[in-house]
Amino acid sequence: MGLTATRTRPAAPRREVAKSRGGRPTKTAAIERDQRLIEVATRLFLDRGFDATSLDAVAEAARVSKPTVYSRYGDKRGLFAAVLRREIERWLAPLSAAAETQLSSASNIPVEQRLVEIGREMLTFTCGPDAVAFSRMMTAQAINFPDVAKLGKEEGWLKAVATTARFFDHLVAQGALDVDDTTIAAEVFLDVVVGHTHRMATFGTALELKAAEKRMRAAIKLFLAGALGPADRVQDAPKPTPRRRSSR
């Protein structure tokens, strides 16, 4: 299956919002209502795109009043920002989990193998159909709504860089990496490992996971060529070819 395969989201379940005696929804009901609104809005944004999705359509599909949607999110941009923030949290969760797993792994595991495991998770969540669709919408709306682009950068890219940099700090402490600035190293790593694949997916190019992983592994080797620590350099250095004695 290609990385840009379409995933169908289940329709939001129909629920009645419980109300307190004063007529307002209870705290639990309000939370459920907001979750339902975000789920419905996410599905509509993915199915129709930003421009073709209206707050009226979201309110009707979520079975809430229009004033409720407007009072909660202000306008469509505010609703899109809320949807985007929730989606970014979903995308970053696998990266954080992979980094935590590698932090607790045995120190004798080759650094290349550790980075491949993280790279594989990154390919899955950055090149999946939903991530690609939202990336396109953010790019299209960045000029008109720079605050949406800022949210994507601060909540998505910068947090991914920070998570990767913390993992690199751990590798530097172990002597597995030799870099002066782990933040810059994290930015380079993210870009060379999944940047090209994500861009191609955003452009609509169908990419097979097997081919994408092959490229990811090659990119990691190139990255490590200039970032291996002293111990790994000795371990991975090619053995000198013995010279043949002359017969003369």
Automatic annotation (TrEMBL):
Gene3D superfamilies: Homeodomain-like (1.10.10.60), Tetracycline Repressor, domain 2 (1.10.357.10). Residues 31-91 form the HTH tetR-type domain. The keyword Iron does not apply. Residues 54-73 bind DNA. Residues 1-11 have a biased composition (Low complexity). Signal peptide: none annotated. Keywords: DNA-binding. It comes from the Bacteria. It holds the Pfam family TetR_C_7. SUPFAM superfamilies: Homeodomain-like (SSF46689). Residues 1-29 are annotated as: Disordered. This is TetR/AcrR family transcriptional regulator. The lineage of its organism: Bacteria, Pseudomonadati, Pseudomonadota, Alphaproteobacteria, Hyphomicrobiales.
